[in-house]
């Protein structure tokens, strides 16, 4: 049996709409117009937009512009959507009409049809609740879409920062556990002075928490919304007090300090706040890439690489080499970070492409931002759970490499000077003999005393402090 359709009519004429659909004619047109990515709208964005419709209805009732019976039906319909129902009815592709008019009407139509059926009406009749006249009262795509993007980003931020904190906490736990595990430091990927796993991993934790703080710093600006600016920031067709009332209602619904922007028009022209958030996400992705690469280097081997850490095996590493295990979780994290950098580049280009009173690129901008936040959240959580938890430090390997490092010659700077220490380093590199043997042979320090200096330098970092160099 074929799909059944109802016929609806708009300013362009009649159009078929699936009989079972809660959306209407403008959504149906958009589905046919934009078969682009096969991806529907982001879940947090759907919820954010439904909350805007609910808050608008409440604000319009406060002004006496919208009858209480209609407000109750609209808010009940919006509440169903916020609770996770009817999300399959949001069917417009992420790449759609400029500014997001198609999604705005998708929401208007779904809420109107739900409200009308609850009031005894029928789908597609739009009586007594009309998608434009009632659900969209006092609004425009111009102000609801950028506001919904901000609200969706605010909803995602705690999940992303929690993932970062969980990863930082694991690095910090390893750092505490391995505070005295001496290893060779490396700069330029060459032997350097001794350090510890604790210092190395503690630095990862500190950096990640700094990234989380930068992300949190983007939150206040996201709370400045342009809702009530209506078309082009003019406030056209908005009720007295609407701007303040709708912001207050959204603050109540979201638990965020939502407030009207001091310039409503600017919040439609400019995507500055979203670019700032994307920039903080980009910085996070860059740090995660660097740290992920370090994990892969430190785990390289098991015989021919660094081999200083061992990552938990989560799957066989090769279809041809038996027993091979790869650092797959950090490989995955790297791949996600590279994609996120691409999303940030897209956000930058989409933000600058706004013209005059409106940025029509908002649907793609929001999609890029949402993907970056969700992908990083999931990737960080997966890498933390599957590879950081259970990470083992090969202490004997760390000690072996630390005590054969050419970089140990640096410990002699304060006793024999830089030039003489450089000669020791060159001899060690040329002959392959450990620095400790050469030092003992030359009568500079007994081997045991040199080993003590290595441990002290790595853990305390105070060799030569207070002495003339």
TrEMBL record:
InterPro entries linked to this entry: Aspartate_Ammonia-Lyase (IPR051546), Fumarase/histidase_N (IPR024083), Fumarase_C_C (IPR018951), Fumarate_lyase_CS (IPR020557), Fumarate_lyase_fam (IPR000362), Fumarate_lyase_N (IPR022761), L-Aspartase-like (IPR008948)
Name of the gene: aspA
Domain Fumarate lyase N-terminal: 13-342
GO biological process, one term: tricarboxylic acid cycle
GO molecular function terms noted in the UniProt entry: aspartate ammonia-lyase activity
NCBIfam families: PRK12273.1
UniProt domain Fumarase C C-terminal: residue ranges: 408-455
Protein name: Aspartate ammonia-lyase
Cellular component annotations (GO), alphabetically ordered: cytosol
Keywords in alphabetical order: Lyase
């Amino acid at each position: 049996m074929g799909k059944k359709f109802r016929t609806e009519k708009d300013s362009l004429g009649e159009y078929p709409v699936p009989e079972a659909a809660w959306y209407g004619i403008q959504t149906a047109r958009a589905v046919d117009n934009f078969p682009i990515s096969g991806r529907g709208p982001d879940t947090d964005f759907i919820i954010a937009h439904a909350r805007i419709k609910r808050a608008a209805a409440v604000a319009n009732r406060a002004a006496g512009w919208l009858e209480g019976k209609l407000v109750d039906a609209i808010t009940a319909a919006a509440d169903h959507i916020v609770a996770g129902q009817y999300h399959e009815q949001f069917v417009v592709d992420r790449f759609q009409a400029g500014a997001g008019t198609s999604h705005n009407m998708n929401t208007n139509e779904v809420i109107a049809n739900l409200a009308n059926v609850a009031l005894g009406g029928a789908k597609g009749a739009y009586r007594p609740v009309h998608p434009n006249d009632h659900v969209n009262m006092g609004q425009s795509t111009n102000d609801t879409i950028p506001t919904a993007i901000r609200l969706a980003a605010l909803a995602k931020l705690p999940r992303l920062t929690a993932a970062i904190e969980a990863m930082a906490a694991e690095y910090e736990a390893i750092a505490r556990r391995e505070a005295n595990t001496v290893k060779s430091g490396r700069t330029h990927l060459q032997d350097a002075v001794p350090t510890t796993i604790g210092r190395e991993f503690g630095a990862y934790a500190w950096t990640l928490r700094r990234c989380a703080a930068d992300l949190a710093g983007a939150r206040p600006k996201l709370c400045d919304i342009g809702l009530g600016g209506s078309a082009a920031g003019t406030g056209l067709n908005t009720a007295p007090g609407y701007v303040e009332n709708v912001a207050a209602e959204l603050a109540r619904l979201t638990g965020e300090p939502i407030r009207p922007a001091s310039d409503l028009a600017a919040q439609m022209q400019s995507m500055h706040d979203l670019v700032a958030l994307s920039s903080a996400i980009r910085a996070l992705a860059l740090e995660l890439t660097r740290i992920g690469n370090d994990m892969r280097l430190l785990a390289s081997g098991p015989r021919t690489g660094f081999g200083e850490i061992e990552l938990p095996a989560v799957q066989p590493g090769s279809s041809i080499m038996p027993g091979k295990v790869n650092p797959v979780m950090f490989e995955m994290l790297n791949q996600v970070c590279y994609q996120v950098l691409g999303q940030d580049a897209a956000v930058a280009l989409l933000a600058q492409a706004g013209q005059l009173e409106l940025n029509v690129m908002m649907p793609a901008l929001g999609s890029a931002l949402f993907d970056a936040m969700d992908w990083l959240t999931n990737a960080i959580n997966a890498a933390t759970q599957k590879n950081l938890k259970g990470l083992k430090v090969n202490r004997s390997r760390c000690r072996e490499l630390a005590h054969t490092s050419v970089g140990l010659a640096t410990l002699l700077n304060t006793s024999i000077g830089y030039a003489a220490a450089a000669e020791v380093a060159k001899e060690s590199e040329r002959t392959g003999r450990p620095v400790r043997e050469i030092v003992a042979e030359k009568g500079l320090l007994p081997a045991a005393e040199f080993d003590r200096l290595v441990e002290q330098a790595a853990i305390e970092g105070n060799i030569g402090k207070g002495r003339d160099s």
